[in-house]
Write a structure and sequence with these properties.
With about 250 residues, the protein is α/β, with parallel strands linked by helices. The protein has 2 domains: about 180 residues, Uracil-DNA glycosylase-like domain (Uracil-DNA Glycosylase, subunit E), CATH 3.40.470.10; about 60 residues, no CATH class. About 40% of the residues lie in helices and about 10% in strands. The chain contains 11 helices and 6 strands. Strand 5 and strand 6 form a beta hairpin. The longest helix has 18 residues. The termini are far apart.
Length: about 250
C-alpha cells in the first residue's frame, strides 16, 4: 500500500473481520491529501454503505452546516472513518474490529501527514488518543474540545454530527465547537514575531506550548488576546497567562 489508490483498493476488497459479511460497500477516506485537518468519524451509515462515499447521509448534511458556520468547506479536509464498513444496527464497534481496521487509518495518516487529527465521537477519539500514547480520561466530557499533543501529533476531538439527529438541542453548542476548526486551520498570525517562537528555537520552551497555542488554539492564547486588545504583556508571559522567571532573565539579557 504505497499510494492512496492502492490503499483504497485494499479497503474495498478487505475481508479481515466479520463486518465484510454484512456490508454493501466499504468506504475508504477521501479529500485533500495535503490537508492540514484530518477528520475521523466512527463508521459509514446506511447511505454511505449503499454508495461507498463519505458523509452523504443526514450526518453529512449536518457536517456541511457546521463547516459552513466555521467558514470552511469539506474540500479543505481529508475525511475518513475509524471503521470502513457499516456497523449492523449502528451498534458500538468492537475492539477486535478496530484493531483489524486500524492499519488502514494509520496508513491514511502516514500518507496525508496532517497537522491536526480531528476524531468525531467517542470511539474514534479513544482509539486515536490511545494510538498516540495518551491516557484516555474516564470522564468522556474531558476528551472533547481541547487539544491533545503527544508523539509529535495534535489531536482535537469533537462530537459526531450524528448527535444532532438524536438531540437537536445540541446544535448551537456543536456549531460553536466546530467553529474552532477555522482557528486550527492556520497558525497564529503573530507567531513569526512572537517571543515564544524565539524561546522555543533556543530550547527554553517545550514544543507543547507552540503546538497547542501558536500552531493550535491561538484564539485562547492570553498573549494573542492581549495583543488583539492592545494591552501590554511582557515577553516572558506564557500563552496561558503565567509568568516564567527564567524567560524574564533571558529577555532582559537579550
Amino acid at each position: 500500500m504505497t499510494s492512496i489508490e492502492e490503499l483504497k483498493e485494499t479497503i474495498r476488497n478487505c475481508t479481515r473481520c466479520d463486518l465484510a459479511k454484512t456490508r454493501k460497500n466499504p468506504v475508504p477516506g477521501e479529500g485533500d491529501l495535503d490537508a492540514r485537518l484530518f477528520l475521523v468519524a466512527q463508521a459509514p451509515g446506511e447511505k454511505e454503505d449503499e454508495e461507498g462515499e463519505m458523509f452523504i447521509g443526514r450526518s453529512g448534511e449536518i457536517l456541511d452546516d457546521f463547516l459552513g458556520y466555521a467558514g470552511m468547506e469539506r474540500e479543505q479536509f481529508y475525511m475518513t472513518n475509524l471503521l470502513k464498513c457499516l456497523l449492523p444496527g449502528y451498534r458500538r464497534p468492537k475492539r477486535d474490529e478496530i484493531g483489524q481496521c486500524s492499519r488502514y487509518l494509520e496508513k491514511e495518516i502516514e500518507i496525508v501527514d496532517p497537522e491536526v487529527l480531528v476524531p468525531l465521537g467517542y470511539y474514534p477519539a479513544r482509539s486515536i488518543l490511545e494510538q498516540y500514547g495518551i491516557e484516555v480520561p474516564d470522564d468522556k466530557s474531558r476528551i472533547f474540545n481541547r487539544i491533545w499533543f503527544n508523539q509529535g501529533q495534535k489531536i482535537y476531538p469533537l462530537g459526531h454530527p450524528a448527535a444532532i439527529v438524536y438531540d437537536d438541542s445540541l446544535k448551537e453548542e456543536m456549531r460553536e465547537d466546530y467553529g474552532k476548526l477555522r482557528v486550527l486551520s492556520k497558525d497564529c498570525k503573530w507567531y513569526s514575531l512572537c517571543p515564544m517562537r524565539r524561546f522555543y528555537r533556543r530550547g527554553e520552551l517545550d514544543q507543547k506550548w507552540i503546538e497547542i497555542y501558536c500552531k493550535g488554539d491561538w484564539e485562547n492564547c492570553k498573549r494573542f488576546q492581549a495583543e488583539k486588545a492592545g494591552e501590554p504583556h511582557p515577553d516572558w508571559m506564557l500563552p496561558d497567562g503565567t509568568l516564567r522567571e527564567r524567560l524574564k532573565v533571558l529577555s532582559e539579557n537579550g
